[in-house]
Amino acid sequence: MKNLLPIFGLLTVLLSACSNGKEKPDSSISNEDLQSITLGIMPTLESFPFYVAKKKGIYDSLGVNIDFICFNSANDRNAAFVTEQIDGMIIDYPSAVQLQVHHPLALIMKNDGYFCFITGKGSALNQLNQLEEKNIAVSRGTIIEYATDVVCHKAGISSYRNNRPEISQIPLRLSMLQYGQIDATFLPDPYATIAMKDGNRSLISTCELDIYMTGTAFSDKAIREKRREITLLIKGYNLGVSYIQSHPQSKLNSLLTEATGIPETLAGLIILPSYTMATRPDSSNISKAQEWLKEKGYLPHYRQNTNLVDTTFITSTNNKS
């Protein structure tokens, strides 16, 4: 138990940083024509270029205010979207497909990030072919469950041959892994790095599995009423990516520390995604998500696949905003 105390201390800091992600607008910037945008994010690295753009004053220079609200589970984020507490969000494609059925939204760009399949240090699970009858925590109907199915298929094991407790809260999945209450789960950074620092193992990542299913989506209402603001959001994102690309990670660790709440020494262990300029989501990945949801029974088989991508903000998959 003593060995876990530093980790849970980190979690307390991380959750505090996440909950304080919504900052007040800079009173020195005034632009009556532009509205604020409220973006729901998860405690993952997909949002880091947005964060860099805000902290380095890029959005201030563009005259638009971006407020972040951080959620620790897809369920909480989705509920905030449905009740219009947020204009848009970083969301996995399976979640976006399901939400779109009753709450119109559109994906405007893809995001770069990854999840690691972490096994507990106290577990005998060292290889993918040992997944049968193991306890693997998932967040149902999301990229976490999708990736778990892909891992099982890669290992030649039916997805029904292991136990799948529903643990949607990311910090809770980490703590259950630390206590040995589950054998494995997919975790994003910085949680994956926290877990590995404490002796847990990563067997594979979503990048290695060729899973790229995260993007930024906005409600139809926000797209109608805040088109200029969303355009500037994308422009700021690209400038944030340029900043990241032009600096060594050692110069970015303080920003990572501010964004995640973890110590700078631990931030230095994080492997940043290969961030690219904003591009449209790949429709084939959305189709994969839709077909998987039908196979799992989350969508009826007779439902036609729908186009979730708004192509008016980024004119092609290769163009930069």
TrEMBL record:
<comment type="similarity">
    <text>Belongs to the bacterial solute-binding protein SsuA/TauA family.</text>
</comment>
<keyword id="KW-0732">Signal</keyword>
<dbReference type="GO" id="GO:0042597">
    <property type="term" value="C:periplasmic space"/>
</dbReference>
<dbReference type="Pfam" id="PF13379">
    <property type="entry name" value="NMT1_2"/>
</dbReference>
<protein>
    <submittedName>
        <fullName>ABC transporter substrate-binding protein</fullName>
    </submittedName>
</protein>
